[in-house]
TrEMBL record, chains A, B:
Domain Cytidyltransferase-like: 4-139
GN (gene name): coaD
Gene Ontology MF annotations: ATP binding; pantetheine-phosphate adenylyltransferase activity
Name this polypeptide is given: Phosphopantetheine adenylyltransferase
NCBIfam families given in the database record: cyt_tran_rel, PRK00777.1
Alphabetical GO biological process terms: coenzyme A biosynthetic process
Domain of life of the source: Archaea
Enzyme Commission identifier(s): 2.7.7.3
Catalytic activity reported: (R)-4'-phosphopantetheine + ATP + H(+) = 3'-dephospho-CoA + diphosphate
Keywords from the UniProt entry: ATP-binding, Coenzyme A biosynthesis, Cytoplasm, Nucleotide-binding, Nucleotidyltransferase, Transferase
Pathway given in the UniProt record: Cofactor biosynthesis; coenzyme A biosynthesis
Chief localization: cytoplasm
Similarity field: Belongs to the eukaryotic CoaD family.
UniProt KW Hydrolase keyword: no
Length: 164, 164
């Protein structure tokens, strides 16, 4: 199958890694995976500073190499929420619970354009060790790391003061 | 993967066939497919008469035989919207656009019970030849057949009157 997945991936946390991994599973070894990566201008709408496209792309490439995925993927720069999803011929969107509404909107817009709708695969939620979602915002706030481990600022501060 | 799918399947139309086929695809040859089939008492809430469980089960079994699916499935009688989905260990629900809200509710209820949420795979819409959905209600009303072909009552009536 030809599947599409997208995001800002800043930083590339365990939720993103699982999302991208599932995209490859669903596509199958003979499929195709289009990974949409938001442009700097589009990502700029986020509530916190974003790393440059080139750095985010480098992290993504390192992850794909580490996972040793088959060479069935390509990266597409996203200048808006939809990228090429409204007109492309493909089979499924792979999304998180958070991005499901965008997928639903894509199908509605495709229907308006008389294009066939696509399947939507919503992955299971990936939780941090505190049972809440892993999200870039939480990582940026310093609550958790990219693997969902809770960052204990109090213990860090006391270690720091012990060091002095 | 272990996946679950469900319905009343009365009659088993092309939308249902596609839904069940995709459940087997997503499960994979080493997976498991649990097919929930509504009980007569539960199906009775529908706006139109429903064939008995045994007949609906026989149609389902005939379809599985015709498709020559691997022996990785079992049929579970559904006495409510959820069946065993709230407590079972499984990986994904396979749904249509129409039944997606039930899957979302299942994940919410699992979360309340501190059970891991599952993936939700929404299949593409299966349309009748008039571009509208294939549905049991439309078939029951005599608008379309189980393959989504529009039933031309006018031409049927004129053929009938010609016959006389």
């Amino acid at each position: 199958m030809k599947v599409m997945v997208g995001g800002t991936f800043d930083p590339l946390h365990d939720g993103h890694r699982f999302l991208i991994s599932r995209a490859f599973d669903i596509a199958g070894p003979d499929g195709k995976v289009i990974i949409g990566l938001t442009s700097d201008a589009f990502a700029d709408r986020k509530s916190h500073p974003i790393h440059p496209y080139k750095d985010r792309e480098a992290d993504l490439l390192a992850f794909l190499k580490e996972k040793n995925v088959p060479p069935i993927w390509m990266i597409e720069e996203l200048h808006d929420r939809f990228g090429s999803t409204l007109d492309a011929d493909f089979d499924a969107l792979i999304v998180s619970e958070e991005t499901f509404p965008v997928a639903k909107e894509i199908n509605q817009l495709r229907r308006n354009k008389k294009r066939p709708c696509v399947e939507i695969h919503q992955i299971r939620c990936v939780l941090a060790e505190d049972g809440k979602w892993i999200s870039s915002t939480r990582i940026w706030r310093g609550e958790i790391d990219v693997h969902g481990h809770v960052i204990d600022h109090q213990s860090q501060a006391s270690t720091k003061s012990d060091d002095v």
